[in-house]
């Protein structure tokens, strides 16, 4: 079996954008699983993601409060075709992150994280693959707004791809 996965984080809707860019919605609607690593900001985005995706795994971030914290967890775990995924928003300072996450999440194969808006793909010495998809709405100091896609096929992680959002869509700033 092949499972197509979309990774997103730091959407900040409606603070940084009124909505997700249409290419991101299209990718999410076509995916088998969507993983969101926090900072939704508004519960309406969570509702819309649940409505438009086949399977959604999400956590709350530091900008998420109230109903979002009631409906989501700080850390989520999901098994996709034998690969153990974890999701968390914030992991502390950049310095020492790989080692810290490798020790904290030693029962996982892949950790999806957010917070920095900086796309990242690394593997710690313990073998933990750490993926940060960046942000599809707020690029901060990055050249592009981003998200990630990947495939899980027969228990193997393949086609991990950083996608850029290059549509004419522009985020709305508050």
From TrEMBL:
Cofactor(s) listed in the protein's UniProt record: a divalent metal cation
EC number: 3.1.4.-
Protein name: Phosphoesterase
Manganese keyword on record: no
Entry-linked Pfam families: Metallophos_2 (PF12850)
Biased composition range(s): Polar residues: 124-135
The keyword Metal-binding appears for this protein: yes
Domain of life assignment: Bacteria
Top-level enzyme category: hydrolase
Transmembrane segments: none
Keywords recorded for this protein, A-Z: Metal-binding
Family: Belongs to the metallophosphoesterase superfamily. YfcE family.
Annotated region (Disordered), positions in chain: 124-143
All copies of domain Calcineurin-like phosphoesterase, residue ranges: 5-154
């Amino acid at each position: 079996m092949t499972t197509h996965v979309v990774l997103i984080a730091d959407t900040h809707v409606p603070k940084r954008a009124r909505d997700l860019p249409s290419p991101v919605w299209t990718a999410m609607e076509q995916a088998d699983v969507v993983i969101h690593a926090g900072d939704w900001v508004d519960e309406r985005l969570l509702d819309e993601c649940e409505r438009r995706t086949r399977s959604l795994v999400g956590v709350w971030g530091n900008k998420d409060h109230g109903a979002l914290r009631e409906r989501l967890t700080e850390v989520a775990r999901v098994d996709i075709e034998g690969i153990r995924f974890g999701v968390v928003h914030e992991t502390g300072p950049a310095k020492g992150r790989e080692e810290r996450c490798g020790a904290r999440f030693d029962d996982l194969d892949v950790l999806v994280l957010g917070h920095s808006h900086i796309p990242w793909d690394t593997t710690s010495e313990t073998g933990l693959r750490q993926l940060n998809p960046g942000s599809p709405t707020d690029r901060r100091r990055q050249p592009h707004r981003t998200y990630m896609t990947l495939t899980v096929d027969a228990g193997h992680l393949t086609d991990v791809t950083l996608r850029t959002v290059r549509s004419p869509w522009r985020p709305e700033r508050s």
